[in-house]
From TrEMBL:
InterPro entries: Rv3654c-like (IPR021202), Tad_N (IPR028087)
TM ranges: 23-42
Matches recorded under Pfam families: Tad
Residue ranges annotated for the Putative Flp pilus-assembly TadG-like N-terminal domain, each copy included: 19-64
Protein name, entry field: Secretion/DNA translocation related TadE-like protein
Source organism: Haloactinospora alba
Domain of life where this protein originates: Bacteria
Keywords, in A-Z order: Membrane, Transmembrane, Transmembrane helix
Residue ranges of the region described as Disordered: 104-126
Length: 126
């Protein structure tokens, strides 16, 4: 028998590959969804990294402003400033009149933390 088995098969023009378009559309939707999710994760982590960098910059500037107050005053000022900006002070080093800080911040969409370092002090021309 070489002809169609019934009218439904003949009308759809199908055979073994009937409905394969649905599978391809679903696969394409899955690929697009995964790409969109990856873009959202990368964008969120980059935004958190910029926020950690801003917190580190502000903490270093605030600490350098208080450099004459002793080492504990410098690092406590850096810690308070970092925490006020949503980050955690991971490291605070004072070398002369220059202060170096490192802040860390958790990322809500990715395991782990983002880190940022900043240094502040008098310019080299002074």
């Amino acid at each position: 028998m070489t002809g169609p088995l019934n009218r439904a098969t003949a009308a759809s023009g199908g055979g073994a590959d009937s409905g394969s378009g649905t599978v391809w559309v679903l696969a394409l939707c899955l690929v697009l969804w995964c790409c969109a999710a990856a873009v959202l994760v990368v964008t969120s982590v980059r935004a958190d990294r910029h926020q950690a960098a801003a917190a580190a910059d502000l903490a270093a500037l605030a600490a350098a402003h208080r450099v004459d107050g002793g080492p504990q005053g410098v690092c406590s000022t850096a810690r308070d400033t970092a925490e006020a900006n949503g980050a955690r002070l991971a490291e605070c080093t004072r070398r002369g009149r220059t202060v170096t800080v490192e802040t860390r911040m958790p990322t809500p969409v990715w395991p782990g933390e983002v880190r940022a370092r900043s240094r502040a002090g008098p310019s080299r021309l002074e």
